[in-house]
TrEMBL record:
Signal peptide: none annotated. Coiled coil: none annotated. It comes from Novosphingobium kalidii. This is ATP-binding cassette domain-containing protein. The keyword Membrane applies. InterPro entries: AAA+_ATPase, ABC1_TM_dom, ABC1_TM_sf, ABC_transporter-like_ATP-bd, P-loop_NTPase, Type_1_exporter. Keywords: ATP-binding, Membrane, Nucleotide-binding, Transmembrane, Transmembrane helix.
Length: 702
């Protein structure tokens, strides 16, 4: 990281304990980071808020800060000393600058990764995103005022025309009134156009912010706490769409007109006197009926949402397991489940639709009846000379504003509102799941982390299982090469995931370099640990994207060199698009062996200190297996630790220590030769406790 400003920001982020995107430095690297103006360019390039320069000395708690000195360049300031010296950190070294007043201190806000912000309720996420955009709120309120004000003007205009202009032929008054009304309408037009543009811009930003938060948050959920049904989780996130539709619907704007309805009833009373009683009765009556319908709709929308989620889950599952389903003629089983869910969905959706239609009809009738009553009563009042003809016309226009837009939209709004409430509850469910690193825990960011591990009194069980992994004590020194063997389901993969820090132990501690793994910053941990799961999945994108996933771009030369090391080069050179070979959704497009080679190549590029491989050669042919392991061994630094889970005994000869797992516990642990000798002499010893079902494949190991 030779770019001075990039190096200084990285130090600042480490000191403030903020994770930076793995590729952030790639984006900022192109900028010449030596002069002071480069900070603005960096902020712009990274999409961060511009940094502001301190005009006065910052308060003590505001440190550490980014600092630029005309002679010394960029660094991180830790504090200002009494004798006008500045304590700084530059390129990892703490030192002092003599002339603090020549240095410029900057307040740079490094944004937290989206998922790390703390919100208890999904509603707060939306609220915070909306309320941060004060300009949009101001315009929405102003526009609502103006729209309603124009309605008022139109009604008064009609009254004046009927009462003053028509009887007396006062055309000069008519022109003045007409010009005034047209000016008001033009102003309304301009405001509406501006509002639409502004609100759309802000709506996109709000949408991006909220979706980013929930997507990151769902990705941060601890692997062992994840709901088993992927489809249901996907449906939970889909709830965002419901809320988005609700927030951007015109129905919501109609709701903002609610207080104005009361104002209009008041104006009707002023202009038309007693006839305002019609609106004073019909309007609250409509609101009460709306509340009753909301209750009736709520129960069925809840049921419809649950069925819809399960339907979505089934769809994801059947597409994901298409091969198994087809090969086993499982489509009939899935089809009958699908039809059953569809029936359930229709059964709960139908009442909602009926109620919505009925609400629409009732509100329409209220609207028409109240209009007729107002006009009829008004006619009597006009005849009795209690009100003017113009006043009756103005009242009828205002009555249309009281009942019209709001009552017309109410049925749709009711359904959307109930769906949104359920969606919010589902999103709350995501927020309740435990995440890898809670935001209120200060993460450790040691400058060096060795690849030694200690598992002390560790216990772990999958949700809903009584027994799982129990490890009283297991120590792995930096630089050790360890093989883990054991029967099917003996807990080898689970042990590896615990060592990788992907699962948190329910009990006990897992230490890396004597630090609790759960407290080490996630980005630091991932940079030090290379874990290759049994079923290595690729992500949608190109082969290059998959090889550099989560890494700072290593450059094509390094990628090709690593690909030579694993033999992946054959695939790259054979394909017309080379490294840009497309990987479709779900990682399809490559064979099982090629996927593993991709994972191994990425591992060589990442150069982690702790390498955890779960049956890496299960999908490889004998030649490739030998080549890969030879190259992997050759690339390992002396202090790199390797833990290899395998069913193949010949691979065990490549490691110096072997751990044998049975029923979730290590039952043998020692130098390879000793363990193999004991395995040949006696069957795998059973764990002392708890007494479990005998290991199904002990024979395979022995
Ligand atoms: N995601 C999961 N949810 C619930 N239980 C699980 C899950 N993964 C594994 N298990 C259970 O945990 C136990 C240990 O599984 P694990 O995958 O660690 O075994 P393994 O030794 O790696 O097996 P194999 O040699 O077949 O890969 C098994 O009994 C398994 O049924």
């Amino acid at each position: 990281m030779s770019n001075p400003i990039v190096a200084a920001i990285a130090t600042l982020a480490r000191m403030r304990r903020v994770d930076l995107r793995p590729d952030w430095a790639d984006r900022a690297r192109e900028i010449d980071g030596s002069d002071e103006a480069s900070l603005d360019v960096v902020c712009q390039t990274l999409g961060w808020a511009p940094a502001s320069r301190y005009e006065e000395a910052p308060r003590a708690h505001e440190f550490p800060l980014l600092v630029h000195h005309p002679d010394h360049g960029w660094a991180v300031a830790e504090r200002v000393e009494n004798d006008n010296r500045l304590s700084i950190v530059k390129e990892g070294i703490s030192t002092t600058w003599q002339d603090a007043d020549m240095a410029h201190l900057y307040d740079l806000v490094i944004p937290l990764p989206a998922g790390r912000q703390t919100f208890d309720k999904a509603f707060d996420v939306f609220k915070s995103a909306v309320f941060r955009r004060k300009r949009a709120i101001f315009f929405a309120i102003l526009a609502t005022f103006v729209v309603n004000f124009i309605a008022l003007i139109t009604s008064i205009y009609s009254m004046q025309v009927y009462d003053r202009v028509v009887p007396r032929g006062a055309f000069s008054t008519l022109w003045v009134l007409t010009i005034g009304a047209i000016v008001a309408i033009l102003f309304d037009f301009i405001l509406r156009v501006t509002r639409a543009n502004m609100l759309e811009d802000d709506a996109v930003k709000i949408d991006t912010e909220v979706s980013e938060f929930f997507f990151s948050r769902a990705a941060e959920v601890r692997l062992d706490a994840r709901p088993q049904a992927i489809g249901t989780t996907a449906a939970q996130l889909r709830g965002l769409e419901q809320i988005r539709t609700m927030l951007s619907s015109s129905a919501l704007f109609a709701l903002a007109d609610l207080p104005f309805a009361l104002l209009f009833i008041f104006v009707i009373a002023k202009l038309g006197g007693i006839i305002a009683l019609v609106m004073a009765i019909s309007f609250p009556l409509a609101i009460v009926i709306a509340l009753i319908f909301a209750r009736l709709i709520r129960e069925n929308t809840g049921k419809a949402q649950v069925s819809s989620n399960r339907k979505n889950g089934l769809l994801v599952e059947s597409l994901d397991a298409a091969e198994t389903v087809k090969a086993n003629r499982g489509q009939w089983f899935l089809l009958s489940r699908w039809n059953h869910l569809l029936e359930e969905l229709h059964a709960s959706e139908l009442p909602v639709k009926r109620l919505q239609a009925m609400a629409g009809t009732i509100f329409g009738t209220i609207q028409q009846v109240s209009y007729i009553c107002l006009i009829a009563w008004g006619a009597v009042e006009v005849f009795e000379n209690r009100i003017s003809m113009g006043a009756l016309i103005a009242c009828s226009i205002l009555a249309g504003r009281v009942n019209g837009p709001l009552l017309g939209q109410l049925p749709q709004l009711l359904v959307q509102w109930t769906y949104s409430k359920i969606s919010l509850r589902m999103l709350d469910g995501i927020l309740e799941l435990p995440v890898d690193r809670p935001a209120d825990v200060d993460q450790l960011r040691p400058s060096r982390l060795s690849a030694s591990l200690q598992l002390v009194n560790v216990a772990f069980a999958y949700p809903g299982q009584r027994s799982g992994i129990t490890i009283p004590r297991l120590e792995v020194a930096a630089g050790e090469r360890i093989g883990v063997i054991g029967g099917i389901g003996s807990g080898k993969s689970t042990l590896l995931k615990l060592m990788a820090g992907l699962y948190a132990p329910a009990q006990g501690q897992i230490l890396m370099d004597r630090l609790d793994m759960g407290q080490i910053a996630e980005d630091l941990l991932r940079a030090h640990i290379g874990y290759l799961p049994q079923d290595y999945r690729l992500v949608n994108g190109s082969l290059r994207d998959n090889l550099t996933l989560g890494l700072s771009d290593p450059g094509d030369d390094a990628i090709m060199e690593a690909a030579h090391g694993t033999g992946l080069i054959n695939l790259i050179t054979a394909h017309p698009r080379g490294l840009d070979l497309p990987i479709s959704e779900g990682g399809r497009g490559l064979s099982g062996g090629q996927r593993v080679l991709t994972g191994l190549t990425r591992l060589l590029l990442a150069k982690p200190k702790l390498i955890l491989l779960d049956e890496p050669t299960a999908n490889l042919d004998v030649d490739t297996e030998a080549l890969v392991l030879r190259r992997l061994q050759a690339s390992l630094e002396p202090d790199t630790t390797l833990v290899l889970v395998t069913h193949k005994l010949q691979l065990v000869n490549q490691v110096s220590r072997v751990i044998v797992m049975a029923n979730g516990q290590p039952v043998l642990d020692g130098p390879t030769a000793d363990v193999l000798k004991r395995l040949k002499a006696v069957p795998t010893p059973a764990p002392k406790k708890p007494p479990q079902v005998a290991d199904a494949s002990q024979g395979a190991v022995a």
